[in-house]
Amino acid sequence: MYPRNSLSRDLVLSMHQNNREGVEDMSLLSDLHEAAIMLNLHLRYQQDKIYTNIGSILASVNPYKQIAGLYDESAVDMYSRHHFGELPPHIFAIANECYRCLWKRHDSQCVLISGESGAGKTERARSC
Ligand SMILES: Nc1ncnc2c1ncn2[C@@H]1O[C@H](COP(=O)(O)OP(=O)(O)OP(=O)(O)O)[C@@H](O)[C@H]1O
């Protein structure tokens, strides 16, 4: 099933193979347009993969449910030991990159969190 009103079967079938499989970083999509982004987010959301990179930007979809293991101690530990891009997209990867830059550059870091009301901005900021 595809998101209603935005994606027809023909449109999806006309897209490149990697568009139809889903990618972790949408800057790598062969066809890049609004429908391709919606399809990629949808494919990942169906597998409880709520985070997707767009280069150094993180797109997050509100799952409105708890996803097991996503924010537990082992996830914190794993993301604290890897550079951005080495592990699947995650808000912890952004937080860790900020922390690294803080130490490396000895300068303040800023994260811009944007989205419509109810998108999950407050919850995500809390998890960091
Ligand atoms: N990662 C998540 N997992 C499960 N539920 C979530 C998650 N993020 C948000 N939610 C649910 O969505 C609701 C709205 O999220 P949140 O308050 O963070 O939105 P917001 O973007 O800060 O909204 P507003 O701009 O109106 O303050 C939460 O009360 C929670 O029920």
Automatic annotation (TrEMBL):
Domain of life: Eukaryota
Transmembrane segments: none
Keyword annotations of the record: Actin-binding, ATP-binding, Motor protein, Myosin, Nucleotide-binding
Residues noted as binding ATP in the record, renumbered to the chain: 115-122
Ranges where the Myosin motor domain occurs: 21-128
PROSITE patterns for this protein: MYOSIN_MOTOR
UniProt record similarity statement: Belongs to the TRAFAC class myosin-kinesin ATPase superfamily. Myosin family.
PANTHER family reported in the protein's UniProt record: AGAP003327-PA, UNCONVENTIONAL MYOSIN-X
Name of the featured protein: Myosin motor domain-containing protein
Annotated source species: Staurois parvus
